[in-house]
Amino acid sequence: MRILLVEDDQGLAEGLQTTLRHQQYTVDLALDGESGWELAEALNYDLILLDLLLPKLNGIHFCQKLRNRGDRTPILLMTAQDSSNKKVEGLDAGADDYLVKPFEMSELLARVRALLRRGHDAQPPILEWGDLRLDPSNCQVTYQQHLLKLTAKEYGLLELLLRYPQRIFSQAALLDHLWSFDDPPYETAVRTQIKGLRQKLKRAGMTSDLIETVYGLGYRLQPSPLPESPPSPQSNTTPQLNLSGIWRKHRERYLQRIAIVEKAVKAIQQGDLNSVLEQQALSEVHTLAGSLGSFGFKQASQHCREIEHILQSAAECSVQKQQQLSELILSLYQDLSLAPTAVLHTPLLPVAQELTDSPTHLLIVDDDIALATAIATIAQNHQIQPHIADSPEQARHLMQQQRPDIILLDLSFPESTEAGLELLKEVNTQLNAPPVVVFTAKQSFAARVKVARLGGQGFLNKPIDPATVVHLLQQVLQPAAAPQAQLLLVDDHPQVLDELRTILKPWGFHLTLLDDPQQFWQTLEQCQPDVVLLNLQMPNFSGLDLCQVIRNDPNWQPLPVLILLPERQEKTITKVFMAGADDYIQQPIVEPELIARLLHCIERSRHHQICRSRFNSPH
């Protein structure tokens, strides 16, 4: 079953995606409405999970567009707005069901199963082929009452064949059904999965070949044999999920959202809350109210709803309300420092125990088993869970079962001197690829260059002490600090500001958006930005005018300034740098380039600040 998930809160989206994949669904993720619509137009989905408030194309308009073209794909709307009007509006737009955030994951999964059943009412809940039984309700496969351990892809392949026993699936069709966009397959993926499934069924005792190869066309299910033994009882066990790793990964981003809300509360108390900060705080607290509860922080979610209610009438905030806001912010921080009562649909362990139950996974790919074992032993002592593969092929198999957090990779193997480089290239073409540290006896500079070009994040030469290897891996694993920077974006085109917000918000930047250049100086002094991004062409005051104003003021002179150019012309670029800008971004905006240039400006600015403070400090 293939599901499209459209959710702009990246932390919650990753939690939902992981949970659904645990239930053996193939999930494509989009972080805004337009991207989700492009996927919906390009592919066939069994279900669409859709947030109501999305950038670029909201959930209501998404539903209407889909239904207007005659697409009847089931849609489940998700939103933090718990009002009858919104529910009616969503259902009238064509949604099949409606779920209010925060929600229990057990409820979401039940609604997903219910919507999917509507398209498969004629099919039995238990899929059988002789003594082989597949139970979609708990994703369990048994043969003669013995549970089989299948990978997610093997399970998906088996379910697809059992659901459509008369259909011949081409290799392209199987790729489309079983692999999502952020999980790109390698060349022999289908044959590898079929081979693995056949071997596991054979080891379980199945004498007949379940899968028939139709040469030149693809694969289909063989005619079912008669049952050899009584069917096994249905199990109601639901696999327990632990999303603590996802919460830990995005925790800082949620704390940054709270910091913005806290900043607005302080501004209310000081009587200088501006409309930009007010709208930003309302947006952040609305997202928090919907997301924190889904991670199990029920009380924190309720506190966010109370804060949102007060902020909606911030202009009339009494002294008592201001005091209540302060108390709610304090309670919110306290809520997040304690263990929540539940994560999604399963009980949560205390926070300290969560982290130990979600170790860092290291994949060691090396045919020198003695050395790999020595590294693995030391890694375990540092709370790193090692997995050893003696070949790239085995590494690919292990990666399908458990996504590693970091890979230690040799370059040469008996079957090929280039096998390691091929695996490195495969890994780094994936979305959110884990860091790969190369560990090899090759001493050539050319090998170092190849590794760097393919995205390797470390190059270690053998021989080297295993303890040193683990220490270096820990350095690579240390997460980079969030940008924690305040950006002022000035452009008279709201759609450009919206595009910039969509790109930059997931990176944790604090954004102030201004569409009126005449309000620039007042906004500059209010938000105290670390970087300013100015459109070149604006009415009344151009980006170059504003840049020169910054450079003429002693207090703001060091502030990094980037100019957004409609096109790249040498004369224009010369004027940009003559006006004092630090860099420029050319439209259409390319996200990696924009992020790289911004981070470079921020890093350079902070480096100058440190050097200046050291120079001015007494010796």
Task: Give a short summary of the structure.
The chain has 619 residues and is of the alpha/beta class.
What does this structure look like?
There is one protein chain. This protein is α/β, with parallel strands linked by helices and 619 residues long. The chain folds into five domains: 2-118, Rossmann fold, CATH 3.40.50.2300; 127-221, Arc Repressor Mutant, subunit A (Orthogonal Bundle); 251-347, no CATH class; 359-477, Rossmann fold (3-Layer(aba) Sandwich); 486-616, Rossmann fold, CATH 3.40.50.2300. 47% of the residues lie in helices and 16% in strands. It contains 23 helices and 23 strands. The strands form six sheets. The protein has a five-stranded parallel β-sheet with strand order 2-1-3-4-5, with helices on both faces. α1 runs antiparallel to α9 (244-270). The longest helix has 27 residues, at 244-270. The model is unreliable at 120-124, 226-242, 338-357, 479-483 and 611-617 (pLDDT under 50).
